[in-house]
Amino acid sequence: MKKIILSTILVALYFIAQSQTDPVKEDLSRFNRPTTSQRAEVSQKIGLSFLKINYGRPNVKDRKIFGGLLEYGKIWRLGADYQTVIDLQNEYVIKGDTIPKGQYALYAIPNQNEWTVFFNSDTAGWGQYTYKPENNVYEFNFPVEASPEFTETFTIGFMNASLNKGDLYVQWENARVKIPITISDKHRKEIETQYTAALGLNERAVGYKYYLVSEYLFIEDKNHEKALEYIQKAIDSGNSAFYTHYLKGEILYAMGKKQEAQQSAVTAKETLWKGFSNPEWENKIETAINEWGK
User: Fold this and answer.
1) Distance (Å, rounded) from C-alpha 174 to C-alpha 65?
2) Are strands 38-46 and 102-110 parallel, antiparallel or unpaired?
3) Domain enclosing residue 244, as ranges
4) Overall number of domains in the chain
5) Which of 100, 113, 189, 237 has its CA 20 to 30 A from that of 24?
6) Residue 23: pLDDT band by 50, 70, 90 thresholds?
7) Same domain, yes or no: 166 and 47
8) Using one digit for the tens of pLDDT, what is the confidence trace for 231-263?
9) What is the arrangement of strands in the sheet containing 165-183, beginning at the earlier edge strand?
10) Rounded CA gap, 86 and 118, in Å?
């Protein structure tokens, strides 16, 4: 029993270490300490897997950044101190290029209206001081837009995320650049394999799984015919929850079948759980009943 507990603890510690990579702490030539440009890590699940970015966050500190501290046309490590590293835990597509699973250092050449962003294979260097253009494996150009607010601390994050896509954004001072990311065809097939296998299991939750697949097909693939087929399978499998009928109504409405969509909304209202009090759902269903049949 003690061996089992110890093994479990070691496995847990391993995954914690993997999810909290800190190059400052791991640098044996230095020591772990607070840094002027503190390290940060951000991650986002897109498709089946996560994208994770570890980077240094410098501050403006009353300086002119773009066209000042960072000269236009010069290479920049897209952060501070150690390499800014993106960890793609699956295969993704950026501007038509399919990028394999793996880790890449991020660099950029900022200009006033456009940035060139590089994915570089050397993830162990020290920013632009060890940068070698021959290690660039992908190169992209992205327009610069005004950030919605002044950003004192350099920020990398994700926005506009849905099931299969999202925007990676880089924001500092008064500038923002967005990098659209989508899943690859291979990644999409992995998703199809996952839900096909799950739906092949004859178990109690299969009705809910049909619902989840229908939702995915409706929202992400816009495959209304297939989504309708799966939502009906969800209902036929015993999943008669209000949200299931509501989704069926959404699909029917998108297909132009307004009267049938309205009836599904009515059924959703009738199947609301007793004692269930959720104004958001109640308003959604009531609005659908009033508008879908028009």
Assistant:
1) 9
2) unpaired
3) 200-291
4) 2
5) 100
6) low
7) yes
8) 999 999 889 999 999 999 999 999 999 999 999
9) 38-46, 49-57, 85-88, 102-110, 114-120, 136-159, 165-183, 92-94, 97-99
10) 11
- Given a cut of 60, whether residue 29 has pLDDT beyond it is no
- Res 6: pLDDT: 47
Residue 15 falls within a domain, yes or no?
Answer: no
For residue 110, the cross-strand partners are: 115
Helix-helix angle 279-291:242-254, to 10 degrees:
40
Q: Do 41 and 178 lie in a common domain?
A: yes
Report if residue 1 sits inside a domain: no
Half-sphere exposure of 70 (CA within 13 A, CB side): 24
For 72-105, the three-class secondary structure string (H helix, E strand, C coil) is CCCCECCCCCCCCEEEECCCEEECCEEECCEEEE
Instruction: Give per-residue pLDDT as tens, 81-133.
Output: 889 999 999 999 999 999 999 999 999 999 999 999 999 999 988 777 889 99
Share of the chain above pLDDT 90, in %: 72
Angle in degrees, CA 79, 83, 88, rounded to 5: 100
Task: Give the bridge partners for 142, in sequence order.
Answer: 115
> What single letter denotes the amino acid at residue 116?
T
E strand or H helix at 119, and its extent?
Answer: strand 114-120
pLDDT (0 to 100) of residue 261: 96
Residues 281 and 172 placed together within one structural domain of the fold: no
Which residues have CB under 8 Å from 51's CB, separation 6+? 43, 44, 86, 87, 88, 89, 92, 158, 168, 181
Residue 2 covered by a domain: no
- End-to-end CA distance of the chain, in Å? 66
The 8-class DSSP code of residue 205 comes to T
Distance CA 144, CA 115 (A): 7
**Which tokens in the block code for residue 294?**
């028009």
What is the reported pTM? 0.80
Could you tell me if 56 and 134 lie in one domain?
Answer: yes
State whether 239 and 173 are in the same domain.
no
